[in-house]
């Protein structure tokens, strides 16, 4: 049998001067804990929760969508989706909403004027073209519900 030399530094337990200090308290084993009282349901304060999805629509809504863009007007405000990017405007931050047909009459142009004066626009193609004439009265009714003139 050959004897191997003792392991070099870094092997085995640390020398006593580097060992961690023992804890100042002795932890009690789990079986020594006081028994827990049975669970009782404390009265829960009423929390503001979002209404279930079927009640989320507090009023009418409007949706115009094409292959790349969309305009949504509902109880929360106006949302534009353009090429996968969504921008939402809540009613308190909207100064005005304007809409019209594009110069060629093939698209709906909707603009939101922010309270600080910034202007945002989304254009949705109307295919077939007759859809544009359907969108105008729908959009007017929905905007009139949330932003009555007067």
Task: Tell me the layout of helices and strands.
Layout (H helix, E strand, L loop, with lengths): L61 E4 L3 E6 L2 E6 L2 E6 L3 E8 L5 E8 L4 E7 L4 H17 L4
Antiparallel strand pairs: 1-2, 2-3, 3-4, 5-6, 6-7
Structure report:
Residues 53-57 have low confidence and may be disordered. The longest helix is centred in the last third of the chain and has 17 residues, at 130-146. The chain is mainly beta and 150 residues long. The strands form 2 sheets. Strands 1-2-3-4 form a 4-stranded antiparallel sheet. The protein has a 3-stranded antiparallel sheet with strand order 5-6-7. The protein has a domain at 59-146: Roll (PH-domain like). The chain is 11% helix and 30% strand. The protein has 1 helix and 7 strands, in the order βββββββα.
List keywords for this structure.
150 residues; mainly beta; PH-domain like; 4-stranded antiparallel beta sheet; 3-stranded antiparallel beta sheet; 1 helix; 11% helix
CATH C-level class of the domain at 59-146 is Mainly Beta
Which regions have little confidence, pLDDT < 50, spanning 5+ residues? 53-57
How large is the radius of gyration? 33 Å
Q: What is the 3D shape?
A: elongated
Percent of residues in beta strands? 25-35%
CATH architecture descriptor name of the domain at 59-146: Roll
- End-to-end distance: 104 Å
Overall residue-averaged pLDDT value: 79
Biggest sheet record: 4 strands, antiparallel
The percentage helix is 10-25%
Kindly summarize this structure in a few lines.
The protein is mostly beta strands. It has 1 helix and 7 strands. The protein has a domain at 59-146: PH-domain like, CATH 2.30.29.30.
């Amino acid at each position: 049998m050959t004897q191997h030399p003792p392991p070099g530094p870094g092997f085995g337990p640390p020398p006593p001067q580097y060992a961690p200090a023992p804890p100042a308290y002795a932890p009690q084993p789990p079986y020594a804990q006081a028994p827990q009282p049975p669970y009782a349901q404390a009265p829960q304060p009423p929390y503001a929760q979002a209404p279930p999805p079927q009640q989320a629509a507090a009023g009418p809504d409007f949706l115009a969508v094409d292959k790349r863009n969309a305009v949504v007007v509902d109880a929360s405000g106006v949302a534009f989706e353009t090429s996968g990017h969504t921008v939402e405007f809540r009613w308190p931050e909207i100064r005005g909403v304007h809409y019209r047909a594009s110069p060629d009459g093939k698209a709906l142009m909707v603009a939101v004027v922010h309270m600080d004066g910034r202007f945002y626009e989304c254009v949705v193609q109307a295919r077939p073209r007759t859809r544009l004439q359907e969108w105008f009265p729908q959009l007017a009714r929905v905007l009139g519900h949330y932003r009555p003139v007067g």
